[in-house]
Amino acid sequence: MARAHRTLVALAAITLALPFGALPADAQAPISVAPPSATRLGTPSTPPDARGRTVLAAADRATGMKILVSTEDRWLWLVSGRDTLMSVPVAIGMAKEFEFEGRRFWFETPRSQRKVLAKQPDPRWNVPEWHYMERAKARGFELVRMTKDSKHLLDDGSFLLTIGDNVGRLNEFGNFWAFPPGMEIMFDGKVFVPPFGTQQRAVPDALGPYKLDTGDGYLIHGTNIFNEESIGEAVSHGCVRMSNDDLEKLYPLVPVGTNVFIF
After folding, report:
1. Is the entire prediction scored with pTM above 0.85?
2. Whether 30 contacts 235, CB under 8 Å
3. Residues 80 and 173 in one domain
4. Please, are residues 170 and 152 in contact by the beta-carbon 8 Å criterion?
5. Which residues contact 197 (CB under 8 A, 6 or more apart)?
C-alpha cells in the first residue's frame, strides 16, 4: 500500500500487546528512509527494555497533544486526541561512547518523558566542548580552551585573541580579522575552543530553521546542508533531528508545554 494512502492511526492503536522483541545486533546501523512497513508507520515497535515500555505506556495513557518518538523505529508521531497529525522519520542518538582527556561521554537519545520547554526560530547552536574534543582527537591535535582575556601566539607570529564578542587573528600590523561563525579554529596542531558568548561559539544554520527545547540539552531540531541525508539514522549526539520540511509543519502545531515521549 502506498504511503500516501495509509490511514492515519489513532493513539489507541499504540498498544503494549505487541510481542517483546530482542534488540537486533545491528540496531544502531543506518537504515533506509524508504517508506516503512505498515507496522513501522502505524504502530511503534515495542521497546526491548523496561524503561522504554514504561514511557510507551505513559504515552498511551496521556491525553491531548503529544509528540511520540520511537528510538527503535527512528520515527516521530504528532498525536492530538485520536488523530495522528504527523508520522515522519527522524535521526536519533548514535548510542556510542566518546572519551578524551579522561572525560567520557555517552551519546544517545534517552528514553524519557519530557516536555517542550521552549521554541525558537532561526536558532544558533551553542557548540558544546565535546565537539572540539572530537575534532582534536580525530586529528591528534592538542585542545586549547580560550578565554576572553587570553592571547595565543601562533607559529607565524600572529595572535589569536578575543575582541568584543569576536575571536580572531591579529597580525603584526595590528589588523584584526574575526573568524566566521562555524569555522573551526585550528592552527599549529591545536584546536582552539572559542569562549562562550562569542560569535564563533554560536553557529547559525546547524540546527535548521527551528528548535524545540525538551530540556537537559536535548532538542528536536532540523538539519543543515551537511547532514540532510542523516534522517532515519542513529547519528546524532542525542537530539532528535528532523528534515527541515517536516519541521516546518511540526513547529506551528506544537505549543510550549506539549508532552514528549521518547521510548
Report:
1. no
2. yes
3. no
4. no
5. 148, 165
